[in-house]
Write a structure and sequence with these properties.
heterodimer, A: alpha+beta, 13-stranded antiparallel sheet, seven-stranded antiparallel sheet, B: mainly beta, 28 strands, 4% helix, 40% strand
Chain lengths: 594, 334
């Protein structure tokens, strides 16, 4: 019985029409084919490797067996399961045996598809429920895990997805710009875009993919997602090309020119980012304008964004305060930052300079490794005393004094193009009374100059760091850890390259003549610094940021602002341009026009 | 902690005596339920461990009522008329069963989340209250629709709800900056002025309705003898965070527990407390429950050590299952 189905399925797959939305064949097509080929050969059981097999027609008996096992275990459930299960079903329902189709339907009746508590959880959950309710319409509540009818589930999912799209496109995404979690926004949206029958939802889902990819593209440099992130894992922070975003960049942008699954120095194969299979099987094609945004680095630029903080449930009056993100991009490096403070629990990555390099650990950054039950209690409803321990048990690093991801209420930044001031003013008695900096061992040079500057070089990228307090070095396996145990400390950072400064010697000479003004630092954590272009940056912790004497106000930050993207807060219209063409995403009208 | 640990059985006794003429079916045997919030090492989104609403099948054997993991905070029930309703407060909404847990329906939608407590009206099955980090929501149509009922709150995070034993028009709520009370079924609320920051647990004395107790964060227990108009700190073994308060039905024995407290006991209505049991290896207790039919039979829900049970009024305790579980609420149903 199974063999007959495999033969039929194989014939049907061979006869399936190729996506035909006008995208040119070529590199993307070969990459997606390559991804499917590799994923179809992976032995691990997950919906992506199953889908890859079903899509390529490879090893169908095993695909059916794997899918059968995934529907067998009644303990499996949740948001990840919801969208991947219905996505796989919809892709392959014409070739699935009736028994498997029934089991998949039953899974939505018998499993508790837990909704979760983060933004990405809810996108996955509601995209899954939307499509499931659409697929099996008109069924009563006793046919669904949550006791709600098909109509009720569809209406609820539709309402939340519409709400989330409106919120994201008017005041900003909450779980923004995450090299890991972008995956679990993109995948359910791709599935929704492909299979939603309502033309408005279908179109808006595709527009959201456009938006998230454009958001990534503007801060992408040769495969790396640079600058500040809402959430990032330590392994990926210190080694940007290890992040799942690298696979998305490779697939859609053609950069970096490496197959991440074959590069264990970046990402071991068992951590494979196979979710990109959902992109590979999707008819969605990245608009050329976004590809150009991601790859044209012929001119440096400033890109600003406004995002929002994850839902705050305690200790603050505002549920979603704004996040201000600043990025300066060149062809060789990207310097990007968030304004500082607690913007996300546990996994915030406030700033970094990331540069192009064939080597691992192509980044430098600093942080205060803050630990606080109060921080966690802002975002999680558990009683505060339990939170730190529980988070530590799950994330394994939260209370580690050497962790490489953290928000901190004692950290603030001020960036102007390729210069950054980051200040730390740690309260006495804090559990981790120090600030750390990451200097990878893959640097070509790391020089502690007599003027106080630290100079770092990786090939043609130069970085100057002026610490604002005493510090010590510790050699570790992959890095030199800079640590200051002064409660008041910080960095002045200037980044440059051979294109801008010429030689490294010239860069160092220039910085040696521009010692920051730290006369106000010990009294009020205030500094001033003159950049290579003659601009004066002045910043006081908890106070104003001034550029050439003028206060820099965050209140005028738009949703997106830069040469590639423009959007006003509250409008719901995103304008993209690559200098030649324009693409306008109008979420009010649910239209995308070029 | 749990006023409802006493009140629901009391309401049930009163209402069973007056309702259901012609109802000759025997009273069902109540089963102990535990709200397993998480198991150690899990956070939301994790698939590790079996957390969710559990029912005790035997001494240390429990059965999970949900098919997959569900973050679970507490229980409520409506038993004064058929069909009985059993409610579970979960991270993904309020779950309701009308067939004693065989099937469930989630009553809330996307506008409410993280349901920390559910309070069904004892006499009106249409009226429900839930507490969330974003305040209290009320339904007058048994969950078909919900409206915010937070007029008068100066913070949004509300943890627990309980009816006054005299009238369900009076409801007490524990919140992040005080305890609050409504006298009109939730139309508006006023702070009670406990004065010790976050209120984590609440108890109304079963025999002296104007005697109220509030367990506070890092501030032990406060008590009021005038219905909440004024509060005084109780004499406690330590200024601990008290997550659980319970009372024997006659009010002679009160119990409290929390973070690094062990089990406390008061024999003077909550004015002073002594340590009754100091367990090795149990860092905290989330909930306490007194068996309404045997006041020496106590249950305690821990943080990560499962459920413990005493049959001698709290002096000796034995492990009763669900090791690894963080037990937020213990409850008899039906």
């Amino acid at each position: 019985m199974m063999n007959r189905w495999c033969v039929i399925a194989g014939l049907m797959i061979a006869l399936m029409p190729r996506p035909c939305n006008g995208a040119p064949a070529g590199d993307f097509e070969s990459r997606r084919a390559r991804l499917l080929e590799v994923a179809a050969g992976e032995s691990e059981y997950n919906m992506m490797t199953i889908l890859a097999r079903l899509s390529t027609g490879r090893d169908l008996p095993r695909a059916f067996t794997m899918l059968d096992s995934m529907t067998h275990d009644r303990a499996m459930g949740g948001m990840f399961y919801a969208y991947t299960l219905i996505g796989t079903y919809l892709h392959a329902r014409d070739v699935l045996p009736d028994s498997l189709r029934r089991k998949i339907r039953e899974a939505f009746r018998l499993r508790t598809m837990y909704r979760g508590d983060t933004e990405n959880h809810w996108v996955m959950y509601y995209a899954g429920i939307y499509l499931a309710a659409q697929t099996w319409p008109g069924e009563p509540g006793d046919q669904w895990f949550n006791g709600k009818s098909s109509d009720e589930n569809f209406a609820e999912a539709s309402a939340w997805l519409t709400h989330w799209m409106r919120l994201t496109t008017t005041v900003g995404q909450g779980e923004f710009d995450s090299p890991t979690y972008m995956t679990v926004f993109l995948c359910p949206l791709l599935v929704l875009h492909q299979f939603a029958e309502d033309p408005v939802m279908k179109r808006k889902a595709g527009m959201m993919v456009d938006l998230l990819m454009a958001d990534f593209a503007a801060e992408h440099l040769n495969g790396s997602y640079g600058g500040g992130h809402s959430r990032d894992y330590p392994d990926d922070i210190v080694n940007p090309l290890a992040a799942p975003s690298t696979m998305w960049a490779w697939l859609y942008f053609g950069q970096p020119e490496m197959e991440q699954w074959n590069e264990a120095r970046f990402r071991p194969r068992h951590r494979g980012s196979w979710e990109t299979v959902f992109a590979a099987v999707s008819p969605y094609r990245l608009p050329q304008i976004i590809l150009n945004m991601a790859t044209d680095r012929s001119r440096p630029y400033v890109h600003r964004e406004r995002k929002r903080v994850r839902n705050i449930i305690r200790f603050q009056d505002t549920v979603n305060p704004p996040v201000y993100k600043y990025t300066y991009m060149t062809s060789r490096y990207v310097l990007g930052s968030l304004q500082g403070g607690i913007l996300q629990p546990i996994q915030q990555h406030t700033w970094d300079v990331t540069y192009t390099s064939p080597r691992t650990h192509n980044t430098i950054f600093s942080l205060h490794p803050y630990v606080s039950a109060g921080e966690l209690a802002m975002f999680f409803p558990e009683v505060p005393k339990f939170l730190a321990g529980e988070v530590d048990r799950y994330h394994l690093v939260y209370t580690n004094p050497g962790k490489w991801n953290s928000s901190s209420p004692y950290e603030e930044t001020f960036q102007h193009r390729n210069d950054l001031i980051v200040l730390y003013d740690i309260a006495p008695g804090e559990r981790q009374p120090h600030a750390d900096g990451f200097f990878p061992k893959t640097l070509d040079e790391r020089i502690v100059d007599t003027t106080g500057w630290i100079f770092a070089r990786n090939e043609g990228v130069y970085c100057g760091i002026y610490p604002l307090g005493p510090y010590a070095w510790t050699e570790e396996e992959i890095c030199w850890r800079w640590r200051s145990t002064s409660l008041r400390t910080g960095w002045i950072v200037e980044v440059s390259s051979v294109d801008e400064s010429g030689s490294f010697e010239a860069f160092k000479t220039s910085l040696r003549t521009r010692t920051p003004d730290t006369t106000g630092f010990s009294r009020s954590v205030a500094v001033a610094f003159v950049t290579a272009t003659g601009d004066t940056m002045a910043f006081r912790r908890g106070g104003e940021r001034r550029l050439n004497g003028t206060v820099v106000s965050f209140s005028d930050y738009p949703l997106f602002d830069g040469p590639w993207m423009q959007a006003r807060v509250g409008e719901g219209v995103i304008r993209m341009t690559d200098g030649k063409e324009e693409r306008v995403l109008d979420f009010r009208a649910a239209s995308a026009e070029e | 902690m749990r006023l409802r640990g006493i009140l629901i059985p009391l309401y049930s006794l009163v209402l069973v005596a007056t309702a259901g003429a012609g109802d000759t079916s025997p009273a069902p045997r109540s089963k102990l339920h535990a709200a397993v919030y998480l198991v150690r090492g899990s956070v939301a989104g994790s698939s590790t461990g079996r957390f969710g609403p559990h029912v005790r099948e035997s001494d240390s054997t429990w059965r999970c009522l949900s098919r997959s993991t569900v973050i679970t905070y507490g229980f409520g029930s409506f038993t004064s008329e058929a069909p009985r309703r059993f409610y579970v407060a979960c991270g993904n909404g309020v779950h309701r069963s009308t067939d004693d847990g065989k099937t469930w329906r989630i009553l809330t939608g996307w506008t409410t989340m993280e349901i920390l407590d559910v309070l069904p009206h004892p006499a009106n099955p249409s009226l429900l209250y839930v507490s969330t980090p974003w305040g209290i929501y009320r339904s007058k149509d048994e969950g078909a629709s919900w409206t915010a009922a937070t007029e008068g709150f100066t913070c949004s995070f509300v943890r627990h709800l309980a009816f006054d034993q005299r009238t369900p028009e009076i409801i007490y709520a524990t919140a992040e900056n005080d305890a609050y009370v409504t006298t009109n079924g939730g139309d508006d609320w006023k702070p009670m002025g406990v004065g010790r920051g976050a209120v984590l647990s609440f108890l109304q004395h079963p025999r002296i309705p104007d005697r109220l107790l509030a367990g506070c964060e890092d501030n032990g227990i406060c008590f009021s003898t005038d219905g909440g108009t004024s509060w005084k700190p109780a004499r406690c073994p330590s200024p601990a965070s008290v997550y659980a308060l319970a009372a024997s039905p006659d009010g002679e024995n009160l119990y409290a527990a929390g973070w690094e407290t062990g089990i406390w006991h008061s024999g003077d209505g909550g004015q002073s407390w002594d340590v009754l049991w100091t367990p090795a290896g149990i860092q905290a207790f989330f909930c306490l429950l007194v068996d309404p039919h045997d006041t020496r039979h106590l249950y305690a829900g821990t943080d990560g050590n499962g459920v413990y049970e005493s049959v001698d009024g709290g002096r000796g305790w034995t492990y009763a299952g669900l090791n690894g579980g963080k037990i937020k609420h213990l409850f008899f149903y039906p």
